[in-house]
Amino acid sequence: MRIALGIVAGETPLDIVLTGPAVHLLDEDTDDLVDGDDIAKFRAALKKLAIPFHVEEGAAPTGASWNADGHPVSPITADGIAALVARARRYLVF
Predict the structure, then answer these.
(1) Among residues 52, 54, 24, which one has the least CA distance to residue 40?
(2) Per-residue pLDDT tens over the stretch 5-36
(3) Most buried one in 30, 66, 83, 87, CB count within 10 A?
C-alpha cells in the first residue's frame, strides 16, 4: 500500500487489487499486520486521492469492522483481474 501511494503521488495511474487475505488491509484494526500501524495512514492518503480498491468478489468480510472508513471499493472477478493485467504496461504483485 505504501508503494502504491508513492506511485500515485508521482501522478502515475494505478489500480489496487486486493485478493484473498489481502482484503484485510481494509480492516478497521490492522495493528496485528506487518506495518499495521502505518496502514491506516496510507489508506487515508489513498482515500484522499480517490484511489479505489478492487476487491476480489467473495473475499470481503461481511462484518462492520471491514472497510469501516468507507474507502471506495469495487468488486472484481478473476476474469476482471486478468483483464486489468492484460492491458497494464507494468504491474507489481505482492
Answers:
(1) 24
(2) 888 888 788 999 999 999 999 999 887 887 77
(3) 30
